[in-house]
Amino acid sequence: MTQHRHLVISALGPDRLGLVADLTAFLAERAVSLEDSRMAILGGEFGMMALVSGTEQAIARVEEELATVLAPKTGASFVTRRTKSPEEHRAGDALPVLVVAESFDREGIARAITAALEKLRVSIVALETTQWSAPFTGAPLFRIEIRGDVPRGTTIGTVRAAMEKVAADEHLDVEVRSPSSGV
Q: I need a labelling partner for 61 at 20 to 30 A (CA). Which of 90, 94, 132, 176 fits?
């Protein structure tokens, strides 16, 4: 069996219709699988981070052709980095956790939450923030969603207690749960 190699691709460029179709076609034409990705429009820019896998030859071809084939077609800039498979990297005994907080938007919310998680040695696997205007008042609202890995010896209850303290100090609504459990 041929061992697959893994590559992280990041892209940033002007948003346009068909950009994701161009990206996925480029990968498929080179026999590379899109394993995990995050794509978003931020302002008028399209941003992507993706983990892809394929044979050594397929990955090398992607690395070689991103700048000459895909960049001119999309107008995006690409950065790549070889990496481990997710199975090689993630701790098998870590407990997954989901932290969601909402509040009126102001500076320091993300810092307070991530600092508290760092003290507990919770590894942040994914973080997403969103800001929007409240209905009727137009006040800026903020939401942060963090998926993390809780280390062995720390409980979800310990994480929940730490987040409740942050919630009280920062005037946030915070929810802490297992990502697989319901709301």
A: 90
* Non-local CB neighbours of 121 within 8 Å, separated by 6+ positions: 151, 154
The candidate with the shortest Cα–Cα distance to 111, out of 94, 92, 98, 124, is: 124
Task: Assess whether 171 and 110 both reside in one domain.
Answer: yes
Range of the domain at 48: 5-88
Is the whole model's pTM more than 0.90, yes or no? no
Tokens representing 105 are: 């938007």
H helix count then E strand count, the chain: 6, 8
Q: How many CA atoms lie within 13 Å of 118's alpha carbon, on the beta-carbon side?
A: 6
Residues 13 and 82 in one domain: yes
Looking at the structure, do residues 73 and 19 belong to the same domain, yes or no? yes
Domain count, the chain: 2
Q: Could you tell me the sign of the dihedral formed by the alpha carbons of 156, 161, 165, 170, in that order? A: positive
Question: Taking a C-beta distance cutoff of 8 angstroms, is the pair 150, 97 a contact?
Answer: yes
> What is the structure's pLDDT at 87?
73
Q: What is the mean pLDDT of the chain?
A: 93
